[in-house]
């Protein structure tokens, strides 16, 4: 009886901790304002995503590209904006390709943003924290996407600690002037 009782208690505590973490990660994302001027930064790479039929553009600052070129962590104040477009589809529902074999962008379906500032991230436990990065997802209307799972952003980018948590770090390197 005692055993079952404590199992139930620890399961309840576990669920409580998990939901507290979700709330915390949500609140952390609120530090990021929509990057209105993202297009004034540098478009450093693009990507055709066949799995979700998206064409993606990646923007950041010249200072961030410069740091990547030197193999350094990206500077405080860096914002990376990932613009997700629906790819143009043919009659069969497959992405059409342009003369270069690339997807053709249509409307924006969302924005993924990561931003790094000195002192950010201290509230997260080590198994969640991505250095000083925060993540946020925005709708095509540039409003916070309340349905986004921000804990998922941390989890998936976490293994890239050698590249400052950035998947396209090498693309930044080669795009630097
Ligand atoms: C399942 C893994 C996964 C999850 C979850 C994920 N990402 Fe990423 N992210 C990637 C990959 C892979 C790339 C690079 C290629 C691409 O865009 O598909 C990327 C690229 C990015 C970039 C461009 C900088 C970089 O790291 O190359 C931003 C910004 C970004 N993601 C933000 C987010 C945000 C915000 C969330 C949560 C709402 C999120 N990501 C969730 C895998 C993930």
Report, as a whole number of angstroms, the end-to-end distance: 68 Å
Q: Which ligands occur here?
A: heme C
| CATH superfamily descriptor | Cytochrome P460
Net shape: globular
* DSSP strand tally: 5
Task: Summarize the helices and strands and which ones pair or pack.
Blueprint: H1 2-29, E1 42-49, E2 54-60, H2 62-69, E3 79-87, E4 105-116, E5 133-138, H3 150-157, H4 169-175
Antiparallel strand pairs: 1-2, 2-3, 3-4, 4-5
Helix pairs in contact: 2-4
The structure holds heme C (HEC).
What do these coordinates show?
Helix 2 (62-69) crosses helix 4 (169-175). It is globular, with a radius of gyration of 19 Å. With 177 residues, it is of the alpha+beta class. The protein starts with a helix and ends with a helix. Helices cover 29% and strands 24% of the residues. The chain has a single domain (2-175), classed as Cytochrome P460 (Chalcone isomerase), CATH 3.50.70. Strand 1 and strand 2 form a beta hairpin. A 5-stranded antiparallel β-sheet has the order 1-2-3-4-5. The protein contains 4 helices and 5 strands, in the order H-E-E-H-E-E-E-H-H.
Task: Give a brief rundown of this model.
The protein is α+β, with helices and mostly antiparallel strands and 177 residues long. The protein has helices at residues 2-29, 62-69, 150-157, 169-175; strands at residues 42-49, 54-60, 79-87, 105-116, 133-138.
Main attributes of the structure:
5-stranded antiparallel β-sheet; Chalcone isomerase; binds heme C; 4 helices; 24% strand; single chain; 177 residues; alpha+beta
